Amino acid sequence: MSAQLDLTHLTLAYDTPQGLRTVVDDITLSLDSGHIGCLLGASGCGKTTILRAIAGFEPVRSGDISLDGQVLSSAYVHRPPETRRVGMMFQDYALFPHLTVAENVGFGLRKLTRDARRARVGTLLDMVGLGASATHYPHELSGGQQQRVALARALAPEPDLLLLDEPFSNLDVDTRERLAFEVRDILKATGHTAILVTHNQAEAFAIADRIGVMQNGHVVQWDTPYNLHHHPADAFVAQFVRREHLAEQRAQALQRGRVAAPGE
Amino acid sequence: MAPLPSSRRWSLSHRAEGGWGWLLAAGAIALLVALPVIALAYAALGGTESLAHWLHLARFVLPDAALNTLALLAGVGVVVTLLGTGSAWLVTAFDFPSKRVLSWALLLPLAVPTYIVAFAYLDLLHPIGPIQTALRAVLGYDSPRQFRLPDLRALPGAIFVLGVVLYPYVYLSTRMMFMTQAANLLEAARTLGHGRFGVFFRVMLPLARPAVAVGVSLALLETLNDIGASEFLGVQTLTVSVYTTWVTRSDLAGAAQIALSMLIIVVALILFERHGRRRQRYANTQRMRPMQPRRLRGAAAFGAIVLGWIPVVLGFVAPAVYLMVETGKRLHLVGGVSAQLLASTRNTLTLALVATVVTLIAGLIVAWAGRQLRESARAQPGRLMARVASLGYALPGTVLAIGLLAPLTLFDRALAATFSTTGLFLMGSSLALVIAYTMRFLAISTGAIEAGLARIPASLEQASRLLGEPPGRTLWRVHLPLLRPALATGALLVFVDAMKELPATLLLRPMNFDTLATWLYAEAARGTYEEGAVAALIIVLAGLLPVVLLARTQLKIGR
Amino acid sequence: MQSRPFLRPLLSALALAGGLVSMAPAMAAEEVSLYTTREPKLIQPLLDAYTKESGVKVNTVFVKDGLLERVKAEGAQSPADVLMTVDVGNLLDLVAGGVTQPVSSKTLESVIPANLRGTDGQWFALSLRDRVLYVEKDLPLTSFTYESLADPKWKGKVCIRAGQHPYNTALIAAMIAHDGAEKTEKWLRDVKANLGRKATGGDRDVARDILGGICDIGLANAYYVGQMKNAEPGTDARKWGDAIKVIRPTFANEKSGGTHVNISGAAVAKHAPHKEGAVKLLEYLVSEPAQALYAQANYEYPVRRGIKLDPVVASFGELKIDPLSVTEIAKHRKQASELVDKVGFDN
Predict the structure, then answer these.
(1) What is the tens place of the pLDDT at every residue in B423-445?
(2) Helix (H) or strand (E) segment spanning residue A144
(3) Which one has a higher pLDDT value, C134 or B389?
(4) Testing the interface with A: which of B10, B13, B14, B466 to mutate, by most A Cβ within 10 A?
(5) Are residues B266 and B367 in the same domain?
(6) Mutate which: B14, B15, B467, B475, vs A, most A CBs within 10 A
(7) Choosing among C7, C44, C47, C62, which should be mutated to test the B contact, i.e. which has the most B CBs within 10 A?
(8) B75 band by pLDDT with thresholds 50, 70 and 90
(9) CA-CA distance, A124 to A102, in Å (whole number)?
(10) For the domain C30-128+262-308, what is the CATH superfamily, name and number?
(11) For residue B115, what are the contacts with CB-CB under 8 A and spacing of at least 6?
(12) Same domain, B308 and B366
């Protein structure tokens, strides 16, 4: 149900009339099964490109991406996205406007019988707290609700890995925070491996077990939040994570018992 | 480092995956559409006529025909711009009694083909027709020999007739543009010191220019295509010259040569339209608040009503009433409708329906291929193919038909030879017509579907794929349902146009097969106008329903 | 849960397409196929009468334009048996285009005068159509020559259809044969200056425009007058017919000039699947009952001698047919057409 993600010497680049443009340069990292990772960085650092490469929407120049040892993408291999058993949450929710909430969540469950599908959809909707909204249409829900439906939909086919592409950016600040914690709770309960992409340090620190701080196509440091905070690899990381309100947030989070203690 | 534009990132995935299937299918369609042009070029070059004849054409026929065509295009362009933009603005910016009805009534002339409106006005405005007779009664003259208006059969008459029936193209696109303009843009302009007229001329018109460009080029393409109105009204346009060169002189090569030279104008118009459509995409990114129309009262309201309804009366009500009266006279006299007319009606509806389905499917393939290959290494071919697919719409029907004759019968002969049968498969059935219609109207369906696809975010497709659906099933489960309004729009427009089509049908129809349009033309040629009026009325009535539905879907936004 | 909005309309449309394909023609035993440019209203009664008498079904394709192109393009697979059209130029084009075949038939040869059929039996005239002057009924005019249409006293008073129309180019070709190209060109320019409105529309529009006061005289075919004057009282056609009278003009040369006539005629197609049936149809069309139909129902002038004329047609007086050979006229057609272009007559 969940798998280990390995990026090995991953390089993503493409040809332009001006020559080769490297977006992501020789990245190696590993995310254990059941853990939540995060790629954190400013716009243009390449984090989203990595996510899309994992999904199968970007070709790999060299190196490889593998799940549980099985190669998904490399310079020679490219499994189509629909065969990858990878789920994704999008910034704009990407719910199908012509389908109800229940139909959206059941979209990837074509192979199940109607009863099995209905049961599974029900379970997932209850899990995200939207059991009563099964027959509603996406435009009738709030942003936060829509994103929860998106989560249910992504998890329905029991993917090996869940990708989250800045899923909270379109929400207001309060919803953002609440939802971030909820998502983490759900993922920890189901035990899914997940990787989040964001430029928002608060989200990263709230959700992730491992955070990769990125700059210009490189992962400067891939480590636990605690280590990033207390043992930054260089000045850039130090400056990136050291924010005053961040310390406060961490204190609050620790109090709520939601973040792994150092060393886990 | 600047982020990759999303379209670029999307296309990278497709370089890795293929998409050759779509490219091939779209390429096949584009090639089919280009076939008549190629055949024409071949016919033009392989002329049986001597150089002397070509020189004769170039010296005596082409210059006047070209001048007349350009003058007609210019005149019609001005008229449709004024009528279309003016009425769009009137209906968007102001509120007055009957405005809501007017806003969709302004589309009604779309149901009336150019040859029918010419046919109607020739009678209506004839010295012994109803309008001049009434005028003489008012002014106290007995006979048309004492007083009559200038004859309609001249260039100004043609400009009037065509302008009054083609302005809806400009009205439609401009109104959409006006309705989606953010009200705050206008308010900002007002606070910067512009009065109402200033706002119109300095903000709305420039913003609407791309929409006007799209509408005008469509209207002008229709003008170029028209054979009926120009011929009835005695204006020797290039299209009429192609027709007469071929018909009265059986000079296919000469006709093909004139036709090819028309393509210069046609290409110019297509580029103009595409340019306008591209600029339209740069939509206002702020939150849209439609403008608040200003309520008019008293004399101003009265003026608005008069001004607003004039185009509808001229372009639809007058011809429609004329047709109804003539039909009434005819039915009263003869007491019924001939079996031939009923057969023609059935043929027309069936043919239009089949052609619509085929054209939609072909349009979907071309539009989808275009979207899949956008901006990638294979995008240039993709976009080129979409452009080639548009060519059919710009080709005058006669020219398209001549161009198609040779390839189609070649195909038929090859088929017969292979399977040792007699009889003509394509030319003997109405499939040749379906093919011609598809080529002619592909641009409409492609355009409508492209616009619809553009409104579907790429993330929906990605979501579907990650949920296990390959691109084909994604198209079926996600895009097609969401494309329903676009498909409906495309279907309605193609259906209406297919029902009205005349020149290509005249040439390519099989034995004992008449459409309403060809039947009408035969009646008009024979001079039995009253009988032709029945067919004309049926065309207009049938064309009404799609136009009304179109009006309701398109204008649902402006409530 | 899944929406299938397209399946049903798609399937029914495909079924329709299949239906349309199966509409392809099947060749039965007692059939003959006719491709004609003549209007259905004129021809259908003749064909119906033939079917009634002989039991042979006639499949008719009414082609407005491009008959030659179409038959040529169809090649050896063409199902056409008989090609029927108007205007000797068109008939000769069919022959020149190689889509006809010679036939011999004693009936056809005895009924149709030699100058009104192809010498080798490649084409046959079936009826005559004289081109006459429509005149405002109260105008004191009793005789006319074609050449005097250019007289400046008619300035602004002449209506005529497009110069490029085959009816007119035939007349112009005849004038070239009579008076030479230079004189004809001048004539065309002067007539254009006399036009009351653009040279467009049909022949019946000449009558309508005379009634409407746009012009006083005009050239048009005689059989329309028969139709108009015999129409139901109160109809537009009747009104137009009642507004005019007819004068049969002649060419200025008194000795050899007569009234210009054109013909409607037919030929047997080169690859006709039913050659005998084709000849039979032609023979029927020159028989007395058919020729009477041409005269009485179509108001045309029969090619067969001795057929009773419609009273209106008879009232135009004697038809002195211009003795010029129709093939001679055909020779000058191209030149006539080019003169029309040169003068810009239709512009």
Answers:
(1) 555 555 688 899 999 988 998 88
(2) helix A143-155
(3) C134
(4) B466
(5) no
(6) B467
(7) C62
(8) very high
(9) 10
(10) Periplasmic binding protein-like II (3.40.190.10)
(11) B226, B227, B228, B229, B232, B502, B517, B520, B521
(12) no
Residues B308 and B412 in one domain: no
Share of chain C above pLDDT 90, in %: 46
* Start-end of H helices in B114-204: 114-124, 130-139, 155-179, 183-191, 196-199
pLDDT the model gives residue C325? 78
* Joined tokens for residue B425: 């498969």
Q: Does C6 touch chain A (CB under 8 A)?
A: no
> Does residue B10 lie in a domain region?
no
The identity of residue B482, as a single letter, is L
- The DSSP element (H or E) to which B470 belongs, if any, is none
CB proximity C3 to A under 8 Å: yes
Q: What are phi and psi of A249, to 5 degrees?
A: -60, -45
Q: What's residue A243's pLDDT? A: 60
Rounded to an integer, what distance in angstroms lies between the CA atom of residue B233 and that of residue B222?
A: 16
To the nearest whole Å, the CA of C64 is away from the closest chain B CA by 7
Average pLDDT over residues B455-467: 91
Q: Answer whether C104 touches A (CB < 8 Å).
A: no
User: Chain B contacts of A45, Cβ < 8 Å?
Assistant: 1
Residue type, A28: T
From chain B residues 13-42, the ones with a CB under 8 A of any chain A CB are: 13, 15-17
Closest of C258, A56, C119, A168 to residue B462, by C-alpha: A56
Q: Which residue has the tokens 């606070």?
A: B191
For chain C, the chains sharing at least 3 beta-carbon pairs closer than 8 angstroms are A, B
C37-84 pLDDT, tens digit per residue, is 887 777 888 899 899 988 999 998 887 667 887 888 788 888 999 999
Higher local confidence (pLDDT), A71 or B36: A71
Q: Say if residue A247's pLDDT is above 80.
A: no
Interatomic CA distance for residues B300 and B296, integer angstroms: 6
For position B537, which CATH number holds?
Answer: 1.10.3720.10
Residue-wise pLDDT for A180-237, tens only, equals 888 999 999 999 999 999 988 888 888 889 999 888 888 888 888 888 888 888 878 8
CATH number of this structure's domain C130-260+318-343: 3.40.190.10
**What ipTM is given for this predicted complex?**
0.84
